[in-house]
Amino acid sequence: MSTTTTGDANSPAPKVSKNELLKESYPDLSGQLAATLADPAADHFNDDDDYFLKFHGAYQQDDRDKRKTGKQYSFMVRARIPGGVVPAAQYLAFDALAGKYGNPTLRVTTRQTFQWHGVLKTGLGPVIRGIHEALGTTIASCGDVVRNVLAPPTPSTSPLLPQVYAHAALLSAELAPRSTAYHEIWLGDTELKLPSENGNRKLETGPAAAAVDPLYGPTYLPRKFKIAFAVPPLNDTDIFANCLGFVAIADPSNPARLLGYNLLAGGGMGMSHGNKDTYPRLADVIGFLPAARVLDAARAVVTIHRDFGDRTNRKHARLKYVLAERGVEWFRAEFATRAGFALKAARPAVFTRQLDLFGWHSQADGGRFLGLYIESGRIKDVPGYTLRAALNAVIGRFRPEVRLTAQQNLILAGVRPEDEAAITALFAQHGVDLAHQGTAFRKATMACVALPTCGLALAEAERALPLLIERVETLLAEVGIAEEEIVFRMTGCPNGCARPYLAEIALVGRAPGKYNLLLGGNEASTRLARVYRESVKFDDVVSELRPLLQRFVAERQTGERFGDFTVRAVLA
Ligand code: SRM
Ligand code: SF4
């Protein structure tokens, strides 16, 4: 492993990016964070420490609505919650932190975790400590490391779920960086309480602790690394958008027994407008491994990214480009060398659907679970719809397990059937009608955060989504398909945080009020959407969609979805 990128032996090694030098200078990821944190006169961190801060789970931001009067710094804090599983007590603690130090909302992300926005520098320590005290963590939820590991959250969808979740939690714990700086800076102690398969475990500390991370080495990964699990036929984690995916394969003679996984590699969404060397990409199916080798497999793939990812150009540094440029055969061979075993031929696995279940459903153990639609994942109180207060009241009284979905929604699991009516009534008191959570279209939408907190946003997303949903709902009713389900995703820039490149209709921000309109993703999230029109004005989106939807109604084949129709008849 080195900070130079792998290349032609005769040509001089290209210069590594500044981030690589930063990591090399502080392999424990500490930078000057502690000093700035302790300085009451400093309201923000310098650029170098801004980068280190990410590995600790926080982003320095400023309210872009207020920039005219100078930068007003605040922080976004992101937790690491493998599989999005949050015990009731932890949820209540997280919510209290949002109320005391945040804006005050909790934001469910597209990777099954929570973000706190609007935290001031003085609140940063208390929030990170508070998350830790609630047995959570923020370590490595951002930065050039393995990020939050996705796993299917919906009870009852497969008997394999508990086994798959255990593997997601195992990878999350085992692939977390070993630096003790996080604990020293934020917690004042060195005990790491990461949920793992075997409960909390203690981090190696003191002189015996490795100064250089044993997995990542001194310079960590060239870029972020994302892992997801999925259990076919449900692709509720958008597995093909991840650097590494594990598709669960059941024993054909016993559907409740996990045989192993098909390994996928090289997916990713991010791109830059006008830069053809960057593009969204679906992961390749590489091969099959037995369930017991999942950690070895993950370590092998992470080290392939570590050693072959581009460290000279951060826009070209994701694992997807290694796959695209070196190919699947090369990857298989490299994997076998590192993992100590070869992958077998991938087993048949078909995905048919991606979306969440809403309302009340039964679990296999006799319990009930509730699927709750959260618009853009934002848990907040507004007049007449006090969702945050409702969740607090319900979770405080009935103590269900909370599960976050990769579509920014929330599940309350393990509810006793006799509590269902009281919970429904409690939600209704707060204006949340569980039986009517929205049209099929509304429930299939996602938007990234974008303005005012995201420093990279070129256009609105989360804040523009409600008006857009209303307009498209009106249009769908006008053309006679008011209850049509169409996967719709919107982002404020091409980085793709709400995975727009997999949606049936997507808007990707280009400039204030202007979006690229994409069509052609599918229900199973296994096909990339394509650009249909560039730089469409927000107010013109409906007039662009109207003729397409009219044609869809007139020409659709039996059971055909809008995404499939556009591929057959519009984009062809
Ligand atoms: Fe993301 C950067 C929000 C999921 C691709 N993403 C950002 C930042 C941190 C902006 C920044 O770097 O300053 C955004 C913070 C906004 C804010 O104010 O909160 C941000 N990303 C999000 C979240 C919160 C969107 C959401 O609405 O839920 C998601 C948090 C996930 C999590 O919990 O870990 C989020 N981001 C994604 C996804 C979807 C996924 O992982 O399934 C992607 C596309 C998949 C991928 O990685 O290819 C994604 N985010 C990016 C990129 C493009 C990376 C690239 O390869 O080019 C950036 C920009 C960057 O890293 O430089 C980015
Ligand atoms: Fe920000 Fe762009 Fe991600 Fe949206 S897609 S949160 S605008 S980086």
Index terms:
572 residues, binds iron/sulfur cluster, alpha+beta, Sulfite Reductase Hemoprotein, domain 1, Sulfite Reductase Hemoprotein, domain 2, 4 domains
Q: In short, what is this structure?
A:
This protein has helices at 18-25, 33-38, 47-55, 88-101, 121-133, 161-174, 181-187, 294-308, 319-339, 387-398, 420-429, 465-478, 541-555, 562-570, and strands spanning 58-62, 73-78, 85-86, 106-108, 114-119, 227-230, 244-251, 254-265, 284-290, 359-362, 368-372, 378-379, 381-382, 385-386, 401-404, 410-415, 445-447, 488-491, 505-511, 514-519, 530-537.
Count up the domains: 4
Annotated CATH topology of the largest domain: Sulfite Reductase Hemoprotein, domain 1
CATH architecture of the largest domain: 2-Layer Sandwich
Beta content comes to: 15-25%
Bound molecules: siroheme, iron/sulfur cluster
User: Helix content range of the residues, please?
Assistant: 25-40%
Biggest sheet architecture? 5 strands, antiparallel
Q: Widest sheet: strand order?
A: 1-2-5-4-12
Per CATH, the superfamily of the largest domain is Sulfite Reductase Hemoprotein, domain 1
Low-confidence stretches: 1-7, 190-210
What's the total count of β strands? 21
Q: Given the helix and strand composition, which structural class is it? A: alpha+beta
Number of helical elements? 14
CA-based shape: globular
Specify the CATH class of the largest domain.
Alpha Beta
C-alpha termini separation: 45 Å
- Arithmetic mean of pLDDT: 94
Report the C-alpha radius of gyration, rounded: 23 Å
